[in-house]
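Appendix B, record 7
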Amino acid sequence: MKWLKVVIPIFLFPLLVACSHAVKGTSSPATADSQKAPPPAEEYRIQAGDQLDIKFFYNKELNEQVTVRPDGRISLQLVKSIVAAGLTPEQLTDQLTKVYSVQLNKPEIAVIVRSFSSQRVYVDGEVAKPGLIPLTGPTTVFQAISQTGGVLYTGNAADVMVIRRGPENQPLVMMVNMQKVQNGTDLGQDIYLKPFDIVYVPKTAITNANLWIEQYLTRMVPRIGFTAAFPVGNGIIGVDTSSTIITPAK
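Structure tokens (predicted):
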């Protein structure tokens, strides 16, 4: 039985590796070179959940702190609701100035973003601590992975996936090689992340093979071993090579 356990993994390992390459090829993900995002330079656009301070320089009684609703709108005094999500603070300032000009004489308004609820990404897969990472500034893939404790020994750092919202919310997948970033051979692979990006570190081929062995061989094929105990000094050393006990049917 032990011989069977060794031969089967060796026989199936090339097949498992070939299958992993075949799956990768069918997905046709975009490469980092063709889809590499430049460092964030565009102006911030307000998102649902952001907290805004609306300041009136000459009408302080109208000052308010509001949260952008899930529908992207905000409600203010003298204004029922106005769309804020998707606009830059300057664009929202212009919109409010036009609306309040009907009731105020030359209003001077400032929009200040107090909190950025949507500025985060999610790191998952073979990392120490998967979870949400806040984007407090320009953040690259390597920096985000570092904040989760780094890639585990079971992870494939050469085929990290960055999943991003494309046009019409269609997923755009980019493959980045963090091994080349770690050894300094291609720092261009370390692309900048955008809000809502998902960074996924897959398992290595050997990890997938070991998992297959554990699930389909170790747990399904019963193992027969032995148990023995040997007195050593004042104590006893035990040896147990069996994890499954087979009991004859009565």
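Remarks on this record: The first strand starts at residue 30 and ends at 31. Confidence is low (pLDDT under 50) at residues 1-35, 244-250.
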